[in-house]
Amino acid sequence: MKEILKKSILLMMVAVMTTALCACAGGKSEKNSGTAKTDEITSGGSVVVGITQDLDSLDPQNAAYAGTREVLFNLFEGLVKANSDGDLVPAVASDYTISDDATVYTFTLRDGITFHDGNKVTVEDVKYSIERYAEIQGESSAFSIFKEINIIDDQTVEIVLSTANTEFLSQLTCAIMEESNDANAETNPIGTGPFKFKEYEPGESLVVVRNENYWNDPYPYLDEVTFKIETDTDAAMSELQAGTLDVYQYLTTDQADTLAGNFDILHGSVNYVQALFLNNDFEPFKDQRVRQALCYAVDRNEINELLFGGYSHVIGTNMIPAFGKYYDEETESNYSVDVDKAKELLAEAGYEDGFDLTITVPNNYQPHEGAAEIIVEQLKEIGVNATIDLVEFTTWYDDVYCDRDYEATIVAVDGTLTPSSWFEKNVSDGANNFTNYNNEEFDSIYEQAVNSTDEDEKVSLYKQLENILSEDAASVYLEDPANIVAVNSELGGYVFYPIAAQDMSVVYYKK
Amino acid sequence: MTKYIVRRIFMLAITIFLISVVTFAAFSVIPGDAAITRLGNNATPERIANLREQMGLDDPLIERYVNWAKGAVKGDFGESFQYQGYQVSDLLKTRISYTALIGILAIILLIFISFPLGILWAKCNGKTSGNIIMILTHILMAVPSFFMGILLTYIFGVVLRIFSPGRCPDPGEDFWGAISYLIFPAMAVALPKVAMVVKYIRNAIVLELENDYVRTAYSKGCSENRVLKKHVLKNAMITVVTFMGMVIAEILAGSIIVEKVFSISGVGKLLVNAILNRDYPIVQATVIYIAVVVMVCNTAVDLLYSVMDPRVKIDGQ
Questions:
Q1: Nearest C-alpha neighbor of A152 from the set A121, A111, A106
Q2: Predicted TM-score (pTM) above 0.90
């Protein structure tokens, strides 16, 4: 009841504010790396960051959760690392070259770079790290094209690929670890990042302190950062209000409003593609027209408005806007809400009376449930009778992701800085093609795009892929959800990354 | 007496055995496993298979159970799945102190609040003051402890700032600091129980007051307080103790949700996370801990019985 009331009020508001919203549809209204420069920076101080997910491992090469990678970003670096614009910049390496045929990557180690324990980073450590990562990732990963790593001299290594690939650089963000610390990789993380490990209480907190010898002066500013695991949002809210936590992500708009006085509320994005994924082998969805009808019936703006106060970025394909040049904005407007058209398409496909649909939703992220509830209402308009099946994440993984035994599901999928990672789930014989998407044209363009060594050609091919997914209505793509973050208003410098990273090295206390 | 204790220990062993079998079996039936939750949905099937093998999840159920039981008998509960490189017993050790402290504080609160209040209510049964106590207990009874927890955190943590939520000192380092934090979760656990116990005590006393011997005592010229103290309470307490035994066991074992609300790194929080992560080494050890606590409490109550009521013989004919 409350939901309906809230919805109708918001609907009215939407009607009134449509024009205003169009003007700022970008979503990232406060990506504020720029405002930081006006504050005066103090060095030192300690900060407690509340994290919403338990850490699965302190070994960066074994960590699977995005939440863990976010934290370990502060301790470890690869040969290259991502900056907040999503560009790859040299880190442990100071320089690199890629051969013209894109099969040999040569790296020069940064002069004088050391691990947290004071030991120099050697080419042997680099070789060990890359080979270790390749082994953990295994044959069916992006690392399958990795052939070997050769030590050229004590400052230089070359990485050889079995086939040409210009995207491999983003794989080399994998952490460089110390070979002599191999046995303690899980319990005593030693890297080259801006912060070094101090103590860890499993399930509770991870404390890191400033790496005095960090190569990238003047970072980090803070002396100590505690990552406190707080999965319960109610508890997190009282800790924020009491001042125990300084930073907390993934808030709802209501929570953000409560905190607004004492905290800066920043809006970024979670860099996921949230969608109503359709099992293309489910009888009605075998017909392209039915899938398109759903795209016309679902009002993505309403979902964004109701769940995120309009701060999400509505999308139309399996790619996030943060990807800059690879992202085709046109796909966002391929479908506008058009109930008549949707009904027409359904009728053409022989479903003029609609059909029954079960939407399987994992319970690990509230906005999935929220979106499902809204979509169920919207689909009623075109006669599709949808019901929600709320399941635990592990059940979802077994039934939907592995066995593909479902009709439709609402989840978010992520990718890496490798553009192909956003499309590999749609390749017909792909291991992770859980939507059973099958499109020969898509497959062949994907093949071309991955193998292309020409950057412009690559961009245009990937954009073609985005358009195929959108026009063919592979699934109903919804949004890149907003990440609403509360940051203690005494702090400055907080930035968002297009990958899983919460960079505390650039955060400082304002004077 | 010895015979009784031996029998109790024997029963404890059987209970623990049964509980561990049931938990183990339950974990093999519910979908998902530790390898999947740990690697997430982008893991290749190959990696999951490797990790499963490493964790021994592919072995037959019976073999896994026997392997686990072999260690557990020696007090070695193995390594956690979720927190690799950490022993379950180490993880539990640091957390039991928090949970035990909450439990003990809650019991102290329970005894010191509910007995005087229950007796007072019995004394002024039907009067205005009695009615006030009645309304109070009814309100307290209706509020579940997790909600009480949220309320207490908000009032004492956020508004009055008497404690800072999420910053509980380690009892080993700052004992009194820890107490002054843990008293709030203890209140959240105890208050709903206080209401129940108060009501129970009052009923027991009121029933007892209707007995003939009470009239006799009055007619001998005893004062009201003397009747209560010397005659009624002793008899009324027998049923109350049984009830208290159950409540105390529940408190010691069950601060689970309250720990989450107050963000205390106790056994309960560990257990909830372990269940979500399918980390059965931790779940097994925790469930056994809870079973032991409950059994020990029940035994203590039985023993207390024989002390209070000479008619009860512990060796049980």
A1: A106
A2: no
